[in-house]
Amino acid sequence: MVLRPRIALETRAAERVTRYTALVTTELSSQTSHPDQGEDGYLMAHGLRHHYIRWGAPDGDAVIFLHGLMNNARYWENVATRLLPDYTVYAPDLRGHGESEHAPGGYLVWAFAMDLREVVEELDLEAFDLVAHSIGCRVAMSYARDHSHRIKHLVLADMGPQVAETAELSLAGQATAPRGFQTEADALAYFASKFPGQSQAFLRRQLAASLVLDEPSGNLVFRFDPNVGQAAGRAALVEIPYLWESLEHISCPTLIVRAENSDVLSAEIAAQMVERLPSGRLLEIAGSGHEIPLQQPAEFARAVREFIAT
Description:
By secondary structure, this protein is of the alpha/beta class. It has one domain: Alpha/Beta hydrolase fold, catalytic domain (Rossmann fold), CATH 3.40.50.
């Protein structure tokens, strides 16, 4: 066993800190010149500072996108830009994710929904379309229970009040996502596998939004509160009956989007959701797994466009 001198390890960590700081600085300086970048915004909601990205002029018809567990607003870039210039897209970082503050009070669905209520108020949106994926669907169902009069159309992509038996409490990405990266090259290779065929500029934006530097180790680690697992853990089991019952109160037109190869939303649960909804319909995306916005962004954006145009 070879023991490396501590001073050498600290020097390498410091070098990685310097390189990553330079990378983020470069990304931030190029934001204004990239048409797909969107604009960053910050607001207070439910006592927490929230970050969001807006694509499009602020006076257009609004669409809000909610990401899934351990993701962030930048996750939606490939879909959001396909709705321009007809819509204004807002994508917040949910509490404990991305640049939004961590929440000592926890990550149950009611807290996320209260955040969304205040985000909508702060953005001064009278009516809007709401699109959600994965855990974001649970947030959307909880919010829409009491506020569907403000939602023109609701899209719930590949998650229901409960997950398929094969998925249990292990959601897509948790088992396969690495804990961190020693180099930017390793991180970029990971994002290239998640977003195949995308440009280096796109991948670097994903990296900058998704990772933060852990200074003690010098590694790049994912930018979310380790406690966000509560949103899919045993504590969330008590939310299942509440969310099933919530569907019956959602009066706005609602589209359930299921991935053909989903291990999270079964065909049986999707069908039951449509039955519970006062105005629900079902669409299946062929050839896709759970992460439809990554695997089939054009098809997903087209489905959203066609639905919210009705």
